[in-house]
């Protein structure tokens, strides 16, 4: 097959050049020329023509919309993140640090789907078939009938998908795949974009669900062009410390389900196992309450989870440090200012360290109240009472704002045996509600009220 000619196109202005240049000759922007396939001088069949079906303009009301059918993977935590299971023709991109367990989980999922009677294909570009077989033996997947293809050329992978028609295929990884149409090396921006586009269109045309494994950069973002995340239907991030046995999968984008959903797994000798009660991981194992600790209820997608917030306030030097792990550092500085201005708690000459236990990352502002109570508890050296939880957003004026779905958060706390809760007044449950038996709920409007209440309860 003759290779198509390539050219270099500016990502800023769209100008083209026959060779790579550091500066675009059209708009003078630096490092914006990207290798692309040159359009032929004579009309020819487009490479995407067979995948792009012709369609007519249709009114929205006339389109027959049916619910998306989902196929469970056999792993409840993975199904939760995907929105219920694998969707026919859906494309999933999963990224994570090396050795975190991406290939292990996907091999387990393919084996479960194959045992359920579905045709599966595992395309590996980083390992040989023997290495995949060794991992399967190690995971206890004896007698697995998952089809394995060790290949990195896009055209051969597409031909195999067309010939075998699997229900689900895994490409491990997209950075190793290359197309003959481009001369750049596998993993380059042009190759990743071209290969992902072909695989995505092939999935939509054939109905095969495709899972792309993606590498991450040292900053933790998915490697390759950002357009890669726009092409696919679902983007999952595999998180966790390689020194810990627990792993988290977080949905960043999902066209078929909720975003910010989280799945929790434990790494065992036989692979990854789902954790049905993740709150147990993120709560401390203290026999008695300790200063600087406050439990909050956070929402990860549709699931309320209890997470312990720890704070340590210590005497600092002329330049006190502010360090947070699992929470936004800028928000910590803002909360310290609110604490000083409206509650009279000064930490100007103190080092303040805040940590979310278990390696979970909390991005919602409902953690504000728990963080401030933990800081005050550490500064005073007095522990909050046993069975104490708090949640609520704190504004710059010192007001405590309601958190979304507060009733679900309180029900989760009551179910796990917590006895005292400090929440925004707007989140107070109805009186005599049996779902909150054993849980005494206090509502507050201002941060100073919350601090006074915490002192009286301690």
Order of strands across the biggest sheet?
A: 8-7-9-10-6-11-12-13-14
Put simply, the count of helices is: 11
Approximate helicity band: 25-40%
* Structural class designation: alpha/beta
Number of domains: 3
DSSP, total strands: 23
Overall mean pLDDT:
88
* Biggest sheet descriptor: 9 strands, mixed
CATH topology of the largest domain: Rossmann fold
Measured distance between first and last alpha carbons: 77 Å
> How would the global form be characterised?
globular
- At CATH level 2, the architecture of the largest domain is 3-Layer(aba) Sandwich
Spans with pLDDT under 50 lasting ≥5 residues? none
> Which percent band covers the strand fraction?
25-35%
> Nearest-angstrom radius of gyration?
26 Å
CATH superfamily of the largest domain: P-loop containing nucleotide triphosphate hydrolases
CATH class of the largest domain: Alpha Beta
């Amino acid at each position: 097959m003759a290779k198509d000619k390539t050219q270099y196109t500016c990502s800023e202005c769209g100008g083209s050049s026959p060779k790579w240049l550091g500066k675009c000759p059209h708009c003078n922007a630096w490092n914006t020329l990207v290798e692309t396939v040159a359009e032929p001088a004579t009309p020819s069949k487009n490479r995407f023509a067979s995948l792009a079906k012709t369609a007519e303009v249709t009114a929205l009301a006339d389109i027959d919309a049916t619910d998306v059918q989902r196929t469970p993977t056999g792993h409840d935590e993975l199904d939760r993140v995907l929105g219920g299971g694998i969707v026919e023709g859906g494309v999933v991109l999963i990224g994570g640090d090396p050795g975190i367990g991406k290939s292990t989980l996907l091999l387990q999922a393919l084996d479960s789907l194959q045992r359920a009677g579905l045709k599966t294909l595992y395309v590996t570009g980083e390992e040989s078939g023997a290495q995949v077989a060794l991992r399967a033996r190690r995971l206890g997947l004896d007698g697995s009938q998952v089809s394995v293809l060790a290949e990195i050329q896009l055209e051969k992978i597409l031909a195999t998908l067309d010939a075998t028609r699997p229900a689900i295929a895994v490409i491990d990884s997209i950075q190793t795949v290359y197309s003959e149409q481009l001369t750049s090396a596998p993993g380059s921006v042009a190759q990743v974009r071209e290969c992902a586009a072909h695989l995505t269109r092939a999935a939509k045309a054939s109905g095969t669900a495709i899972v792309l494994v993606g590498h991450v950069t040292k900053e933790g973002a998915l490697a390759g062009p950002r357009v890669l995340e726009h092409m696919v239907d679902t983007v999952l991030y595999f998180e966790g410390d390689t020194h810990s046995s627990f792993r988290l999968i977080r949905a960043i984008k999902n066209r078929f389900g909720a975003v910010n959903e989280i799945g929790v797994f434990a790494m065992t000798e036989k692979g990854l196992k789902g954790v049905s009660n993740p709150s147990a991981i993120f709560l401390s194992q203290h026999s008695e309450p300790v200063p600087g600790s406050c439990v909050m209820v956070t929402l990860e997608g549709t699931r309320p989870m209890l997470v312990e917030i720890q704070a340590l306030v210590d005497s600092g030097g002329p330049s006190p440090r502010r360090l947070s792990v699992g929470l936004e550092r800028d928000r910590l500085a803002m909360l310290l200012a609110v604490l000083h201005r409206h509650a009279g708690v000064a930490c100007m000459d103190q080092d303040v360290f805040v940590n979310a236990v278990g390696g979970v990352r909390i991005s919602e502002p409902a953690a504000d109240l728990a963080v401030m109570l933990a800081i005050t508890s550490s500064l005073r050296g007095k522990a909050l009472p046993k069975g104490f939880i708090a949640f609520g957003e704190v504004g710059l004026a010192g007001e405590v704002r309601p958190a979304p779905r507060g009733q679900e958060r309180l029900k989760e706390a009551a179910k796990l045996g917590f006895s005292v809760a400090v929440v925004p007044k707007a989140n107070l449950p109805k009186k005599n509600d049996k779902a909150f038996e054993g849980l005494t709920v206090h509502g507050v409007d201002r941060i100073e009220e919350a601090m006074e209440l915490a002192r009286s309860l301690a």
